[in-house]
Write a structure and sequence with these properties.
alpha/beta; 30% helix; globular
């Protein structure tokens, strides 16, 4: 069914970074938005992740070394990459497709796409933070009166800046137990530059990196400081983004677990498990690792597999001030003001599977030799979240077989970093505006 009109009202399924960013940018085009989520704001992988906005490290997951490393360790619960032996057929299909993309040639192709994105992902964060003073939000007469609007029932001009901003990671630190591990990252940087990307960095000795972060222990023998990167406090940023979307006139409906999308001549119906219906002109499926269940009937055949990540927080004796990454151990650490988030692992498993304590213990075992002054038994906020992964490592962004049904997901580990840019591109596409050329790579029907 073809819809050639710009929608007046869109339902966005999913209140994570991608969904809320899409809602925000649709509002920039004057579209009324209702966001629905089965739990609440940032209930999935947007809450407990490392919060990195790092173009230098936004790399395709399907690097050749992952396949080599994974074959040796992926059935070990203590490994950074873990696949349970009782794998479902859908997971097996994903792994076979993923393996086909773990070649140097395929990695270079995917890396060229990420290089094409460049720093535009950071630019979109700036737009969210700065807001807009010209946004028009459709309202009824009663709502316009309540907002004290002079423009009447048709539109309201809002100041929409966010209270929580991005933070400069100057520098962003990576640590290594030996020079061989550091050389592996430098090799990836060579690949980034060869693909047209940009990365500025300096090498650090053991004393240099510990001078920057005294919490690092004697196990860290070398480092790299990367420039022009950023990070966020994910819980605070997501709350701030939700507040901005609400202030601009959206509705956020929680406890709305979508089971079906029905298309008809005049729009769509979004139906939840209780039989409740949200009516709209169009819908955006931004439900993360659950995207495939709703999108499949509209021609999206790509497998979207949950790649589950874990995290927890601790309070070091000396609080770090920089994000720190240990590539060989796949451990990602971020200062969140009064606490220090430690994250890691990639676990290919059902998205709704409960948290596995052994995965937390594996992160502790990998991280504890690299730090000093941390009581690893005093952990808080233990968390697991499901990142939506595709076989080729590229997200799914755009219209489906139906011009009323759109998808935004499949970003793997980079849903937070690329969420605002995704929302900007998709909102432009939905409202008939021009879109960046890079969006051609993200066709959901590919």
């Amino acid at each position: 069914m073809v819809n050639t009109q710009t929608p007046e009202h869109v339902v966005v399924i999913g209140a994570g970074m991608v969904g809320l960013s899409t809602a925000w940018y649709l509002q920039e085009h004057g579209v009324k938005v209702t966001v629905v989520d089965r739990e609440g704001v940032a209930a999935g992988s947007s809450w407990g992740n490392a919060g990195w906005l790092t173009p230098a490290l936004t790399l395709p997951l399907s690097e050749p070394s992952v396949l080599t490393y994974g074959l040796k360790t992926m059935f070990d619960p203590a490994s950074p990459l873990y696949i349970p032996l009782s794998a479902k057929p859908s997971l097996i299909r994903f792994l076979l497709g993923f393996a086909r993309h773990c070649t140097p040639g395929k990695w270079r192709e995917a890396m060229a796409v990420f290089s094409e994105i460049g720093a535009t992902g950071l630019d979109a964060f700036d737009e969210l933070a700065e807001g807009s003073t010209t946004t028009t939000v459709a309202r009824s007469s009663a709502e316009a009166n309540a907002w004290g609007a002079d423009a009447g029932a048709g539109s309201v001009a809002l100041s929409t800046g966010m209270s929580e901003k991005t933070k400069p990671a100057e520098p962003f630190l990576t640590g290594f137990k030996n020079l061989k591990d550091r050389d592996a990252l430098l090799h990836e940087f060579e690949g980034i530059r060869a693909s047209g990307g940009k990365v500025e960095f300096d090498l650090l000795g053991a004393d240099d990196i510990r001078a920057l972060e005294p919490t690092l222990g004697d196990g860290v023998k070398a480092g790299v400081q990367i420039h022009d990167q950023r990070f966020i406090n994910p819980p605070k940023f997501m709350d701030s983004l939700a507040d901005s979307v609400l202030a601009r006139g959206a509705d956020i409906v929680t406890g709305f677990d979508v089971v079906d999308i029905r298309e008809h001549d005049h729009g769509v119906e979004v139906v939840d498990t209780q039989g409740r219906i949200q009516h709209a002109d169009s819908v955006v499926i931004a439900s993360g690792a659950w995207l495939g269940k709703l999108a499949r009937k509209f021609g999206v055949k790509r497998v979207v597999q949950a790649g589950r990540g874990y995290s927890f927080t601790v309070v070091p004796e000396v609080m770090p001030t920089h994000p720190i990454y240990f590539p060989a151990q796949r451990v990602a650490c971020t200062p969140l003001g009064d606490r220090f988030r430690v994250a890691g692992t990639m676990e290919f498993r059902d998205a709704d599977h409960p948290l596995e304590p052994k995965r937390i213990e594996a992160i502790v075992a990998a991280a504890s030799p690299l730090f000093t002054g941390i009581n690893w038994e005093d952990r808080q906020e233990e968390w697991v979240g499901s990142r939506p992964c595709t076989t080729d490592g590229l997200p799914l962004i755009g219209a489906t077989r139906s011009s009323r049904v759109h998808v935004a997901g499949g970003h793997g580990m980079w849903g937070v970093a690329l969420g605002p840019l995704t929302g900007k591109m998709l909102a432009a596409s939905i409202t008939g505006e021009s879109v960046p050329a890079v969006m051609r790579h993200f066709n959901p029907l590919r």
